[in-house]
Amino acid sequence: MKENSVLEMRNISKSFPGVRALQNVDFTLCEGEIHALMGENGAGKSTLIKVLTGVYSKDSGEVYVKGHDNAVSIRSPQDAQNIGISTVYQEITLCPNLTVAENMYIGRTKNIYQNWKKMNADADKILNSLGIPASATQQLGNYSIAIQQMVAIARAVDMDCKVLILDEPTSSLDENEVEKLFGLMRDLKKRGVGIIFVTHFLDQVYEVCDKITVLRDGQLVGEYEIETLPRIKLVAKMLGKDMDDTADIQSEVEIYDDKGAEPVFEAEGLVSVAGIKPFDFYIRKGEVNGFTGLLGSGRSECVRAIFGADRVIGGKVKMHGKAVKINKTIQAMKNGIAYLPEDRKGDGIVGDLSVRENLVLALQVMKGFFKPFSKAQAYKFADEYIKLLDIKTASADTPIKSLSGGNQQKVIVARWLLTNPEYLILDEPTRGIDVGTKVDIQKLVLKLASEGKSVTFISSETDEMLRTCSRLIVMRDRKVVGELTGEDLNQNKVMSTIAGGGQ
Description:
alpha/beta; Rossmann fold; 6-stranded mixed β-sheet; 24% strand
Protein backbone atom coordinates (compact mmCIF):
# COMPACT_ATOMS: atom_id res chain seq x y z
CA MET A 1 0.00 0.00 0.00
CA LYS A 2 1.05 3.59 -0.63
CA GLU A 3 2.21 5.46 2.45
CA ASN A 4 -0.85 7.73 2.88
CA SER A 5 -3.45 5.28 1.53
CA VAL A 6 -6.17 4.16 3.90
CA LEU A 7 -7.90 1.89 1.33
CA GLU A 8 -6.83 0.24 -1.91
CA MET A 9 -9.08 -1.92 -4.10
CA ARG A 10 -7.27 -3.74 -6.92
CA ASN A 11 -8.73 -5.49 -9.98
CA ILE A 12 -12.19 -5.90 -8.45
CA SER A 13 -14.56 -7.93 -10.64
CA LYS A 14 -18.15 -8.94 -9.98
CA SER A 15 -20.67 -10.64 -12.27
CA PHE A 16 -24.35 -11.46 -11.93
CA PRO A 17 -26.25 -13.79 -14.27
CA GLY A 18 -25.98 -12.15 -17.68
CA VAL A 19 -24.34 -8.97 -16.37
CA ARG A 20 -20.70 -8.06 -15.80
CA ALA A 21 -21.19 -5.43 -13.09
CA LEU A 22 -17.47 -4.70 -12.41
CA GLN A 23 -14.45 -5.43 -14.58
CA ASN A 24 -11.01 -5.13 -12.98
CA VAL A 25 -11.82 -1.88 -11.17
CA ASP A 26 -9.15 -0.10 -9.10
CA PHE A 27 -9.95 2.44 -6.38
CA THR A 28 -7.60 4.21 -3.96
CA LEU A 29 -8.59 6.37 -0.97
CA CYS A 30 -6.06 8.43 1.00
CA GLU A 31 -6.17 9.60 4.61
CA GLY A 32 -8.01 12.90 5.09
CA GLU A 33 -9.44 12.85 1.57
CA ILE A 34 -12.98 13.38 0.32
CA HIS A 35 -13.22 11.25 -2.83
CA ALA A 36 -16.27 11.39 -5.12
CA LEU A 37 -17.40 8.16 -6.78
CA MET A 38 -19.39 9.06 -9.89
CA GLY A 39 -21.10 7.44 -12.85
CA GLU A 40 -24.48 7.18 -14.50
CA ASN A 41 -27.08 4.49 -13.78
CA GLY A 42 -25.57 1.00 -14.14
CA ALA A 43 -21.98 2.30 -13.96
CA GLY A 44 -21.12 -0.03 -11.05
CA LYS A 45 -20.93 2.47 -8.15
CA SER A 46 -23.39 0.59 -5.91
CA THR A 47 -21.82 -2.78 -6.71
CA LEU A 48 -18.33 -1.50 -5.80
CA ILE A 49 -19.64 -0.09 -2.49
CA LYS A 50 -21.47 -3.36 -1.73
CA VAL A 51 -18.32 -5.39 -2.41
CA LEU A 52 -16.38 -3.09 -0.08
CA THR A 53 -18.97 -3.38 2.69
CA GLY A 54 -19.41 -7.16 2.43
CA VAL A 55 -22.95 -7.13 1.03
CA TYR A 56 -21.64 -8.84 -2.14
CA SER A 57 -18.69 -11.18 -2.38
CA LYS A 58 -16.26 -10.20 -5.16
CA ASP A 59 -15.39 -12.69 -7.93
CA SER A 60 -11.75 -11.59 -8.01
CA GLY A 61 -9.40 -8.84 -6.82
CA GLU A 62 -7.92 -7.69 -3.49
CA VAL A 63 -8.86 -5.12 -0.87
CA TYR A 64 -6.16 -3.56 1.33
CA VAL A 65 -6.93 -1.48 4.43
CA LYS A 66 -4.44 0.53 6.48
CA GLY A 67 -3.23 -1.35 9.54
CA HIS A 68 -3.43 -4.76 7.86
CA ASP A 69 -0.32 -6.31 6.29
CA ASN A 70 -2.21 -8.51 3.85
CA ALA A 71 -5.36 -8.22 1.73
CA VAL A 72 -8.47 -8.27 3.95
CA SER A 73 -11.43 -10.61 3.60
CA ILE A 74 -14.80 -8.85 3.91
CA ARG A 75 -17.64 -11.37 3.99
CA SER A 76 -20.30 -9.28 5.77
CA PRO A 77 -21.10 -5.68 6.80
CA GLN A 78 -19.94 -6.65 10.30
CA ASP A 79 -16.52 -7.64 8.89
CA ALA A 80 -16.31 -4.25 7.15
CA GLN A 81 -17.21 -2.46 10.37
CA ASN A 82 -14.63 -4.42 12.38
CA ILE A 83 -11.81 -3.28 10.08
CA GLY A 84 -12.92 0.35 10.14
CA ILE A 85 -15.26 0.73 7.11
CA SER A 86 -18.58 2.43 7.94
CA THR A 87 -21.46 3.38 5.65
CA VAL A 88 -24.16 6.01 5.98
CA TYR A 89 -26.94 5.36 3.47
CA GLN A 90 -29.33 7.72 1.72
CA GLU A 91 -32.23 6.18 3.64
CA ILE A 92 -31.79 6.59 7.38
CA THR A 93 -31.19 3.15 8.86
CA LEU A 94 -31.49 4.22 12.52
CA CYS A 95 -34.48 3.85 14.87
CA PRO A 96 -36.42 7.15 15.21
CA ASN A 97 -38.30 5.94 18.32
CA LEU A 98 -35.03 5.48 20.29
CA THR A 99 -32.89 8.26 21.78
CA VAL A 100 -29.85 9.66 19.99
CA ALA A 101 -27.51 7.84 22.42
CA GLU A 102 -29.37 4.52 22.05
CA ASN A 103 -29.00 4.81 18.27
CA MET A 104 -25.30 5.53 18.57
CA TYR A 105 -24.62 2.50 20.76
CA ILE A 106 -27.23 -0.01 19.54
CA GLY A 107 -25.68 -3.42 18.89
CA ARG A 108 -22.35 -2.33 20.38
CA THR A 109 -22.76 -3.00 24.08
CA LYS A 110 -21.09 -6.11 25.43
CA ASN A 111 -22.79 -6.28 28.85
CA ILE A 112 -26.36 -7.18 29.72
CA TYR A 113 -26.49 -4.20 32.10
CA GLN A 114 -25.99 -0.82 30.53
CA ASN A 115 -24.63 2.20 32.37
CA TRP A 116 -27.10 4.68 30.87
CA LYS A 117 -25.59 7.73 32.55
CA LYS A 118 -22.14 6.96 31.08
CA MET A 119 -23.60 6.13 27.64
CA ASN A 120 -25.48 9.45 27.48
CA ALA A 121 -22.40 11.38 28.66
CA ASP A 122 -20.16 9.64 26.07
CA ALA A 123 -22.69 10.29 23.32
CA ASP A 124 -22.95 13.99 24.23
CA LYS A 125 -19.16 14.25 24.24
CA ILE A 126 -18.93 12.85 20.66
CA LEU A 127 -21.81 15.04 19.44
CA ASN A 128 -20.18 18.16 20.93
CA SER A 129 -16.74 17.30 19.51
CA LEU A 130 -18.29 17.03 16.02
CA GLY A 131 -20.44 20.14 16.47
CA ILE A 132 -23.70 18.22 15.97
CA PRO A 133 -26.67 20.13 17.48
CA ALA A 134 -28.36 17.14 19.13
CA SER A 135 -28.84 15.90 22.68
CA ALA A 136 -28.08 12.29 23.68
CA THR A 137 -31.32 11.88 25.63
CA GLN A 138 -33.66 13.29 22.94
CA GLN A 139 -35.67 10.95 20.74
CA LEU A 140 -33.98 10.74 17.31
CA GLY A 141 -37.28 11.16 15.41
CA ASN A 142 -37.63 14.71 16.84
CA TYR A 143 -34.73 15.89 14.71
CA SER A 144 -34.54 16.79 11.00
CA ILE A 145 -33.29 14.27 8.42
CA ALA A 146 -29.99 16.21 8.26
CA ILE A 147 -29.36 15.83 12.00
CA GLN A 148 -30.31 12.14 11.79
CA GLN A 149 -27.71 11.75 8.99
CA MET A 150 -25.13 13.41 11.22
CA VAL A 151 -25.97 11.11 14.15
CA ALA A 152 -25.42 8.14 11.81
CA ILE A 153 -22.03 9.66 10.90
CA ALA A 154 -21.21 10.24 14.60
CA ARG A 155 -21.98 6.59 15.28
CA ALA A 156 -19.64 5.57 12.45
CA VAL A 157 -16.87 7.89 13.66
CA ASP A 158 -17.12 6.64 17.24
CA MET A 159 -16.59 3.13 15.96
CA ASP A 160 -13.15 4.35 14.97
CA CYS A 161 -13.76 4.20 11.25
CA LYS A 162 -10.88 4.74 8.84
CA VAL A 163 -13.15 4.78 5.78
CA LEU A 164 -16.55 6.52 5.79
CA ILE A 165 -18.87 5.87 2.85
CA LEU A 166 -21.61 8.47 2.34
CA ASP A 167 -24.14 7.10 -0.16
CA GLU A 168 -26.25 9.97 -1.56
CA PRO A 169 -26.41 11.63 1.87
CA THR A 170 -27.67 14.99 0.56
CA SER A 171 -30.59 13.83 -1.61
CA SER A 172 -33.23 14.68 1.05
CA LEU A 173 -31.53 17.81 2.49
CA ASP A 174 -32.07 21.51 1.84
CA GLU A 175 -29.17 23.91 1.16
CA ASN A 176 -28.59 24.88 4.81
CA GLU A 177 -28.59 21.26 5.91
CA VAL A 178 -26.13 20.37 3.13
CA GLU A 179 -23.79 23.10 4.42
CA LYS A 180 -23.94 21.62 7.96
CA LEU A 181 -23.15 18.17 6.58
CA PHE A 182 -20.23 19.53 4.54
CA GLY A 183 -18.89 21.23 7.69
CA LEU A 184 -18.90 17.86 9.45
CA MET A 185 -17.22 16.16 6.45
CA ARG A 186 -14.44 18.78 6.45
CA ASP A 187 -13.96 18.27 10.19
CA LEU A 188 -13.59 14.51 9.71
CA LYS A 189 -11.17 15.13 6.86
CA LYS A 190 -8.92 17.10 9.25
CA ARG A 191 -9.00 14.12 11.61
CA GLY A 192 -7.59 11.89 8.85
CA VAL A 193 -10.79 9.98 7.97
CA GLY A 194 -11.01 8.94 4.29
CA ILE A 195 -14.49 9.72 2.90
CA ILE A 196 -16.06 8.12 -0.18
CA PHE A 197 -18.82 10.47 -1.35
CA VAL A 198 -21.36 8.91 -3.74
CA THR A 199 -23.52 11.62 -5.31
CA HIS A 200 -25.15 12.88 -8.50
CA PHE A 201 -24.80 16.58 -7.64
CA LEU A 202 -22.02 18.20 -9.68
CA ASP A 203 -21.98 21.45 -7.69
CA GLN A 204 -21.51 19.57 -4.44
CA VAL A 205 -18.64 17.50 -5.84
CA TYR A 206 -16.73 20.63 -6.83
CA GLU A 207 -17.47 22.29 -3.49
CA VAL A 208 -16.27 19.61 -1.10
CA CYS A 209 -14.21 16.89 -2.88
CA ASP A 210 -10.48 16.46 -3.49
CA LYS A 211 -10.59 13.69 -6.10
CA ILE A 212 -13.10 12.05 -8.44
CA THR A 213 -13.20 8.44 -9.64
CA VAL A 214 -15.49 7.86 -12.63
CA LEU A 215 -17.01 4.48 -13.49
CA ARG A 216 -18.90 3.62 -16.67
CA ASP A 217 -20.46 0.28 -17.63
CA GLY A 218 -18.65 -1.51 -14.79
CA GLN A 219 -15.22 -0.24 -15.83
CA LEU A 220 -12.88 2.36 -14.44
CA VAL A 221 -12.76 5.47 -16.64
CA GLY A 222 -10.14 7.12 -14.42
CA GLU A 223 -9.19 8.89 -11.20
CA TYR A 224 -8.79 12.68 -11.33
CA GLU A 225 -7.70 15.55 -9.11
CA ILE A 226 -10.62 17.95 -8.80
CA GLU A 227 -8.53 20.91 -10.09
CA THR A 228 -7.56 19.09 -13.26
CA LEU A 229 -11.05 17.99 -14.32
CA PRO A 230 -13.39 20.76 -15.53
CA ARG A 231 -17.09 20.05 -15.18
CA ILE A 232 -17.65 19.62 -18.89
CA LYS A 233 -14.91 16.98 -19.06
CA LEU A 234 -16.49 15.15 -16.10
CA VAL A 235 -19.90 15.12 -17.85
CA ALA A 236 -18.25 13.82 -21.03
CA LYS A 237 -16.47 11.02 -19.14
CA MET A 238 -19.67 9.97 -17.33
CA LEU A 239 -21.68 9.90 -20.54
CA GLY A 240 -18.90 8.23 -22.52
CA LYS A 241 -18.60 11.06 -25.03
CA ASP A 242 -15.40 12.86 -25.90
CA MET A 243 -16.11 16.55 -26.37
CA ASP A 244 -13.37 17.11 -28.89
CA ASP A 245 -14.15 14.08 -31.00
CA THR A 246 -17.93 14.19 -30.85
CA ALA A 247 -19.39 15.28 -34.11
CA ASP A 248 -22.51 17.32 -33.66
CA ILE A 249 -25.47 15.05 -34.03
CA GLN A 250 -28.14 16.68 -36.09
CA SER A 251 -31.65 15.93 -35.09
CA GLU A 252 -33.62 13.89 -37.56
CA VAL A 253 -36.71 15.76 -36.42
CA GLU A 254 -37.98 18.54 -38.60
CA ILE A 255 -37.53 21.90 -36.89
CA TYR A 256 -40.74 22.37 -34.98
CA ASP A 257 -42.43 25.67 -35.68
CA ASP A 258 -44.39 26.56 -32.57
CA LYS A 259 -45.04 30.21 -33.32
CA GLY A 260 -48.65 31.05 -32.89
CA ALA A 261 -49.69 27.66 -31.58
CA GLU A 262 -51.32 27.77 -28.17
CA PRO A 263 -49.69 25.67 -25.45
CA VAL A 264 -51.60 22.50 -24.63
CA PHE A 265 -50.10 22.54 -21.14
CA GLU A 266 -48.37 25.31 -19.16
CA ALA A 267 -46.84 25.38 -15.69
CA GLU A 268 -45.50 28.38 -13.79
CA GLY A 269 -43.36 28.07 -10.64
CA LEU A 270 -44.30 24.37 -10.32
CA VAL A 271 -42.71 22.64 -7.31
CA SER A 272 -43.34 19.36 -5.47
CA VAL A 273 -42.29 17.62 -2.27
CA ALA A 274 -39.55 15.78 -4.26
CA GLY A 275 -37.12 18.68 -3.75
CA ILE A 276 -36.93 20.22 -7.25
CA LYS A 277 -36.57 24.00 -7.60
CA PRO A 278 -39.71 25.79 -8.93
CA PHE A 279 -39.77 25.59 -12.73
CA ASP A 280 -41.73 26.97 -15.69
CA PHE A 281 -42.73 24.67 -18.52
CA TYR A 282 -44.94 24.54 -21.59
CA ILE A 283 -45.65 22.17 -24.47
CA ARG A 284 -47.57 22.87 -27.70
CA LYS A 285 -49.74 20.67 -29.88
CA GLY A 286 -47.72 18.17 -31.92
CA GLU A 287 -44.45 19.01 -30.13
CA VAL A 288 -41.93 16.49 -28.76
CA ASN A 289 -39.80 18.00 -26.02
CA GLY A 290 -37.71 16.44 -23.29
CA PHE A 291 -35.95 16.93 -19.97
CA THR A 292 -32.26 16.09 -20.09
CA GLY A 293 -29.48 16.05 -17.51
CA LEU A 294 -27.43 13.57 -15.55
CA LEU A 295 -29.11 10.94 -13.41
CA GLY A 296 -30.44 12.61 -10.24
CA SER A 297 -30.71 16.04 -11.91
CA GLY A 298 -34.48 16.13 -11.34
CA ARG A 299 -35.78 15.04 -14.77
CA SER A 300 -38.27 12.50 -13.42
CA GLU A 301 -39.27 14.72 -10.50
CA CYS A 302 -40.36 17.46 -12.93
CA VAL A 303 -42.65 15.22 -14.97
CA ARG A 304 -44.00 13.57 -11.80
CA ALA A 305 -44.97 17.06 -10.59
CA ILE A 306 -46.69 17.77 -13.94
CA PHE A 307 -48.71 14.54 -13.60
CA GLY A 308 -49.44 15.02 -9.87
CA ALA A 309 -47.62 11.77 -9.01
CA ASP A 310 -45.67 13.66 -6.30
CA ARG A 311 -47.56 16.10 -4.06
CA VAL A 312 -47.46 19.56 -5.63
CA ILE A 313 -46.76 22.34 -3.07
CA GLY A 314 -46.66 25.41 -5.33
CA GLY A 315 -47.20 26.78 -8.80
CA LYS A 316 -49.97 27.30 -11.37
CA VAL A 317 -51.06 24.97 -14.16
CA LYS A 318 -53.08 25.68 -17.32
CA MET A 319 -54.58 23.48 -20.06
CA HIS A 320 -55.32 25.38 -23.28
CA GLY A 321 -54.89 28.67 -21.42
CA LYS A 322 -57.41 27.84 -18.68
CA ALA A 323 -56.32 27.34 -15.07
CA VAL A 324 -56.77 23.76 -13.87
CA LYS A 325 -56.01 21.96 -10.63
CA ILE A 326 -53.70 18.91 -10.89
CA ASN A 327 -52.78 17.70 -7.41
CA LYS A 328 -53.62 14.04 -8.03
CA THR A 329 -52.96 11.66 -10.90
CA ILE A 330 -56.67 11.16 -11.59
CA GLN A 331 -57.02 14.94 -12.18
CA ALA A 332 -54.14 14.78 -14.68
CA MET A 333 -55.76 11.82 -16.46
CA LYS A 334 -59.12 13.59 -16.68
CA ASN A 335 -57.32 16.59 -18.23
CA GLY A 336 -55.93 14.37 -20.99
CA ILE A 337 -52.43 13.81 -19.55
CA ALA A 338 -50.84 10.34 -19.55
CA TYR A 339 -47.60 9.26 -17.84
CA LEU A 340 -45.40 6.24 -18.42
CA PRO A 341 -43.21 5.99 -15.30
CA GLU A 342 -39.48 5.34 -15.16
CA ASP A 343 -39.88 2.31 -12.86
CA ARG A 344 -41.66 -0.11 -15.19
CA LYS A 345 -41.84 -2.94 -12.68
CA GLY A 346 -42.64 -0.90 -9.57
CA ASP A 347 -45.05 1.74 -10.93
CA GLY A 348 -46.09 0.37 -14.33
CA ILE A 349 -47.10 -3.24 -14.75
CA VAL A 350 -49.21 -5.40 -12.44
CA GLY A 351 -47.23 -8.62 -12.91
CA ASP A 352 -49.92 -11.19 -12.08
CA LEU A 353 -52.57 -9.63 -14.31
CA SER A 354 -52.90 -10.48 -18.01
CA VAL A 355 -51.80 -8.29 -20.91
CA ARG A 356 -55.47 -7.43 -21.52
CA GLU A 357 -56.12 -6.45 -17.87
CA ASN A 358 -52.96 -4.31 -17.76
CA LEU A 359 -53.89 -2.66 -21.02
CA VAL A 360 -57.36 -1.47 -19.99
CA LEU A 361 -56.33 -0.49 -16.46
CA ALA A 362 -55.97 3.31 -16.91
CA LEU A 363 -59.19 3.66 -18.92
CA GLN A 364 -61.02 1.58 -16.30
CA VAL A 365 -59.75 3.87 -13.52
CA MET A 366 -61.09 6.90 -15.40
CA LYS A 367 -64.41 5.20 -16.02
CA GLY A 368 -64.66 3.92 -12.42
CA PHE A 369 -64.38 0.33 -11.19
CA PHE A 370 -68.12 0.10 -10.63
CA LYS A 371 -68.62 0.38 -14.40
CA PRO A 372 -66.45 -2.45 -15.72
CA PHE A 373 -65.89 -3.00 -19.42
CA SER A 374 -67.61 -5.98 -20.96
CA LYS A 375 -65.32 -8.85 -21.79
CA ALA A 376 -65.91 -8.30 -25.51
CA GLN A 377 -64.94 -4.61 -25.19
CA ALA A 378 -61.77 -5.40 -23.25
CA TYR A 379 -60.71 -8.06 -25.81
CA LYS A 380 -61.45 -5.66 -28.69
CA PHE A 381 -59.20 -2.97 -27.11
CA ALA A 382 -56.47 -5.51 -26.34
CA ASP A 383 -56.44 -7.06 -29.81
CA GLU A 384 -56.38 -3.62 -31.48
CA TYR A 385 -53.37 -2.35 -29.49
CA ILE A 386 -51.44 -5.63 -29.52
CA LYS A 387 -51.64 -5.41 -33.30
CA LEU A 388 -50.98 -1.63 -33.45
CA LEU A 389 -47.80 -1.76 -31.32
CA ASP A 390 -46.74 -5.23 -32.46
CA ILE A 391 -46.71 -6.59 -28.90
CA LYS A 392 -45.15 -10.08 -28.86
CA THR A 393 -47.44 -12.16 -26.67
CA ALA A 394 -49.01 -15.62 -26.99
CA SER A 395 -52.44 -14.11 -26.31
CA ALA A 396 -54.19 -11.22 -24.57
CA ASP A 397 -54.64 -13.51 -21.53
CA THR A 398 -50.90 -14.15 -21.05
CA PRO A 399 -49.67 -12.83 -17.66
CA ILE A 400 -47.70 -9.66 -18.40
CA LYS A 401 -44.79 -10.75 -16.16
CA SER A 402 -43.94 -13.50 -18.68
CA LEU A 403 -43.34 -10.93 -21.48
CA SER A 404 -39.93 -9.41 -22.26
CA GLY A 405 -39.12 -5.97 -20.85
CA GLY A 406 -39.62 -4.31 -24.22
CA ASN A 407 -43.05 -5.85 -24.71
CA GLN A 408 -44.08 -4.96 -21.16
CA GLN A 409 -43.13 -1.39 -22.01
CA LYS A 410 -45.27 -1.50 -25.16
CA VAL A 411 -48.26 -2.70 -23.10
CA ILE A 412 -47.91 0.33 -20.77
CA VAL A 413 -47.64 2.67 -23.77
CA ALA A 414 -50.79 1.01 -25.19
CA ARG A 415 -52.55 1.45 -21.83
CA TRP A 416 -52.12 5.19 -22.03
CA LEU A 417 -52.84 5.50 -25.76
CA LEU A 418 -56.16 3.79 -25.08
CA THR A 419 -57.15 6.78 -22.89
CA ASN A 420 -56.62 8.99 -25.99
CA PRO A 421 -54.47 11.58 -24.19
CA GLU A 422 -53.64 15.01 -25.55
CA TYR A 423 -50.34 15.05 -23.73
CA LEU A 424 -48.19 11.95 -23.20
CA ILE A 425 -45.17 11.86 -20.83
CA LEU A 426 -42.71 9.02 -21.44
CA ASP A 427 -40.02 8.65 -18.75
CA GLU A 428 -37.19 6.34 -19.88
CA PRO A 429 -39.50 4.34 -22.20
CA THR A 430 -36.54 2.61 -23.90
CA ARG A 431 -34.42 1.68 -20.86
CA GLY A 432 -33.44 -1.98 -20.68
CA ILE A 433 -35.06 -3.00 -23.95
CA ASP A 434 -33.59 -4.30 -27.20
CA VAL A 435 -32.48 -2.05 -30.05
CA GLY A 436 -35.35 -3.06 -32.34
CA THR A 437 -38.00 -2.15 -29.78
CA LYS A 438 -36.18 1.13 -29.02
CA VAL A 439 -36.51 2.14 -32.66
CA ASP A 440 -40.19 1.11 -32.64
CA ILE A 441 -40.91 3.34 -29.65
CA GLN A 442 -38.98 6.30 -31.13
CA LYS A 443 -40.94 5.96 -34.41
CA LEU A 444 -44.18 5.74 -32.45
CA VAL A 445 -43.35 8.98 -30.58
CA LEU A 446 -42.75 10.84 -33.86
CA LYS A 447 -45.93 9.33 -35.37
CA LEU A 448 -48.02 10.47 -32.37
CA ALA A 449 -46.59 13.97 -32.68
CA SER A 450 -47.45 14.08 -36.40
CA GLU A 451 -51.03 13.18 -35.38
CA GLY A 452 -51.15 16.24 -33.11
CA LYS A 453 -50.34 14.70 -29.71
CA SER A 454 -47.88 16.47 -27.43
CA VAL A 455 -45.10 14.26 -26.05
CA THR A 456 -42.47 14.79 -23.35
CA PHE A 457 -39.72 12.23 -23.79
CA ILE A 458 -36.98 11.47 -21.24
CA SER A 459 -34.00 9.23 -21.91
CA SER A 460 -30.55 8.78 -20.35
CA GLU A 461 -29.21 8.40 -23.89
CA THR A 462 -28.60 11.88 -25.25
CA ASP A 463 -28.43 10.60 -28.86
CA GLU A 464 -31.94 9.28 -28.51
CA MET A 465 -33.20 12.60 -27.17
CA LEU A 466 -31.57 14.48 -30.05
CA ARG A 467 -33.20 12.16 -32.61
CA THR A 468 -36.63 12.48 -31.05
CA CYS A 469 -37.05 15.96 -29.50
CA SER A 470 -37.33 19.39 -31.09
CA ARG A 471 -36.73 21.18 -27.74
CA LEU A 472 -34.70 20.10 -24.70
CA ILE A 473 -35.04 21.45 -21.16
CA VAL A 474 -31.66 20.99 -19.48
CA MET A 475 -31.42 20.22 -15.75
CA ARG A 476 -28.63 20.22 -13.22
CA ASP A 477 -28.85 19.60 -9.48
CA ARG A 478 -32.68 19.68 -9.49
CA LYS A 479 -33.13 22.99 -11.28
CA VAL A 480 -33.71 23.99 -14.91
CA VAL A 481 -30.47 25.55 -16.23
CA GLY A 482 -31.19 25.96 -19.94
CA GLU A 483 -33.34 25.27 -22.98
CA LEU A 484 -32.05 24.13 -26.37
CA THR A 485 -33.73 24.27 -29.78
CA GLY A 486 -32.80 24.33 -33.45
CA GLU A 487 -29.06 24.39 -34.17
CA ASP A 488 -28.25 24.10 -30.45
CA LEU A 489 -29.62 20.56 -30.41
CA ASN A 490 -26.29 18.78 -30.48
CA GLN A 491 -24.21 16.67 -28.13
CA ASN A 492 -21.63 19.35 -27.35
CA LYS A 493 -24.20 21.98 -26.46
CA VAL A 494 -26.12 19.57 -24.22
CA MET A 495 -22.97 18.63 -22.30
CA SER A 496 -21.74 22.21 -21.91
CA THR A 497 -25.19 23.30 -20.63
CA ILE A 498 -25.30 20.43 -18.12
CA ALA A 499 -21.80 21.32 -16.95
CA GLY A 500 -22.75 24.99 -16.55
CA GLY A 501 -20.20 27.07 -14.67
CA GLY A 502 -16.58 26.03 -14.46
CA GLN A 503 -16.15 25.12 -18.11
